[in-house]
Amino acid sequence: MAAATFEKGIAFVLAIIVGGTTSFQLYKDWASTGLDNQVTKLLLGLMAFGCILVLLACFGILGAG
Amino acid sequence: MAIAVPHPPGGHIDTHSDHIHPAPRTFIGKYIFSLDAKVIGVQYMIAGLLFFCISGLLAEVVRIQLMRPEGGFVSNDTYNGVYTLHASGMIWMTIIPLVTGGFGNYVMPLMIGARDVAFPWLNLVSFWIFPPAGLMLFGSFLIGAPDAGWTEYPPVSVQGPPGTSLWCAAIFLIGISSTMTGLNFMVTIMKMRAPGMTFTRMPLFVWAQLATALLNMVATVALSAALAALFMERQFGVPFYDPGRGGSPILWQHMFWFYSHPAVYIMILPAFGFISEILPTFARKPIFGYKMIAFSSIAIALLGFTVWAHHMFTSGMAPWMQLPFMILTMIIAVPTGLKVFGWTATLWGGKIEYHPAMLFALGFIVVFTLGGVTGIFLSSVPVDLHWHGTYAVVAHIHYVLFGGSIFGVFAAVYYWWPKITGRMMSNKLGVLHFWLTFVSFNATFLPMHWLGLMGMPRRVAQYSDTTPLLINQFTIVNQFISISSFVLAASTLVLLYNMAHSLIAGKKAPPNPWNARTLEWQISSPPPYYNFKKIPAVLKNPYEFGEPLPYLGLDPSDKDDHHPSPTDHPTPAHA
Amino acid sequence: MAVSSLNSTHEAVHARYQEVDSLYRETRDIRLLGFVLFLVSDVVLFSMFIFAYLYLRNSVPNWPPINKDGVQLPRFDLAFACINSCVLFGSGATMHFAMESWKHLKKADFNLWMIATIVLGVMFLGGQAYEYNHVPLTWAGSTMGGSFFTLTGMHGFHVFIGVIYLITLFIQANRGVYTGSKYFGLTAGTLYWHFVDVIWVALFYLFYLL
Lengths: 65, 575, 210
Hints:
The complex is a heterotrimer. Chain A is mostly helical. Chain A has a domain at 15-58. Chain A has helices spanning 2-28, 35-58. Chain A is elongated and about 50 Å long. Chain C has a single domain (10-209), classed as Cytochrome c oxidase, subunit III, four-helix bundle (Four Helix Bundle (Hemerythrin (Met), subunit A), Up-down Bundle). By secondary structure, chain C is mainly α.
């Protein structure tokens, strides 16, 4: 049990760091144009969303264990 | 070490579209591993024709077997393999390669004023996957041909002979080829049109290829997934479709039909494109309803993704699900019908020339419409419950696929043969080919409607005759169908002879024998490898017969047969 | 007018891109659309297997199901997957930084971020290998195992190819194949890597959280 909590703790910290970084980069690049930039923005947004999912999982809101 | 930033060189630069690559010089570079979309297109056509003949012969085996109720021509297992590979070969190794890889590769870049497709190496790989995949498919006879029909429903397909796995691999490979071709064409049409060619100035054949490329690129991947899953279940026991271990046979049907319904639009949309080019040319009239026909192609492509479960009405699916699929299927008839109306209106008041290409186009409209009408019948759930799995469905399929796609291919062959080969075909033989085909086609497939409605199932090696009216009525009708099919098969020989004679001794073709208006007719027959010395600018759509041609900047020497090598006089990038 | 090779501000990045010769620009546009469409078709591939997984999951009353030996299968171990997911998402962020460094002509930074991306990608694969060893499932034993190994295996294969691709890009960039204004290979690599990342978001949710 403790191992799982420890792992969740690490995951929590990582998700904050990575999610924060990704969201910030998305915010910075929001005004860029061109197909490659639009696709990048979309994917960065989805990655940030993934970090949010990890956060919710760490708190047990999502996932059953 | 800093990252270098090169300055653009002084003076003018070739744009991508102006740039002419040096000519290939070796035999292998010119004819075997050519990067030129035209050569690749011809390669697709030759291989497609070969697989058409093989698949057609398999159909004749079916017809010989069905001349007697007790069969007996081949064993039942062989028979199952024969009809499975007939359909698989026709769909995946004949029609789709011919209409997309064959005519799409040859004609589409010419029509948009491009020198080639967007990714020529990808095009090369796409083609060279095709003949090995075809050989794999038919080679499955050697290890026990797949026997569950081209739809390979589990659990029969999971338990089937070893050839089923080979079938999976072969179709997977051709699927990769198709997907890459679709991607290639999408990028080509979106990015490499001549200056001034807006979407509404594109020929309708290009619209058709665009819609088809979209389907090819997205739907074929779905088939790859289904095949991979079937392969994994057969070879490694992974439970996808086995209900005993938590799987579901209906899952296969969903995955398979999610591809296979758009597949039928892949097969027919290019044929619609052929017809849209041929009719105005031989009626000497603008196409009626250009935008209607253009946008209906896209509508059909998009709607085509939403109707797959109409193949599954008898699978035990929930009744509430049947209704939306039925309605959507009926709706898809509307854009198709709009096209037929547009074509008919194009003919109205036109000066019709009954050239073989035009005859097949007219025949297409008649026969495909009949097939479409039976499609409406099938779209209705109560009717489908009776028709499903009977010869009525076989009739529908062949009316739309043979009468639609293959008639379209024949029309396209007669139309573009002079452009591709630089020779004219014999009109008389073409007319003979048409009438033989048209009459024997209808004689073969029309009675199948009746057979199906009277209860003859499809995919049977033997049948029994229980109709009380006349003794052996099924037998007589089946024999009539079989004999008609022999005539149909023989009529293909007329075409083959015409093609061979034209290549050997046909008259030289001028650049524009039909006085058509699309770009491919403004250069020599056959075109030089670089297509256009100078990429023209396009001012209008190509259907305004009677007006001067809407192209600026075509080099008149493009119409000459003897082309100076472009490396002798490097093309100036500016006029 | 040529832009100085020392200028690495945002405006200069934009100007450098605008200034390249039209031949390159057309080629790049064509390749970019082709690559994006390839990614779209790859999404369809994953979507089909995800559909199959959801369909199979929906067709039994209880999930996790009972495997072919009659054993009730447990749910996945969430905590480890959370860490592994962050590793992969982190590699996406480092890849973004690598790209930004390149655009701003900072070669040394680019190299560092690329190495970080590659290392994190390999760590993710290692994590997956660990997970494969510890999860009480077999490929053919149940629909849970079948769908899990098929989907994550396809994804892991894509990550593996991605790592090879990134290593190749790293080597090519250091050999001078890419310049401050012409670096389409790097763009394509970044898009591919982000795509692989986002597929994992979906798989993580579907297997571990659903």
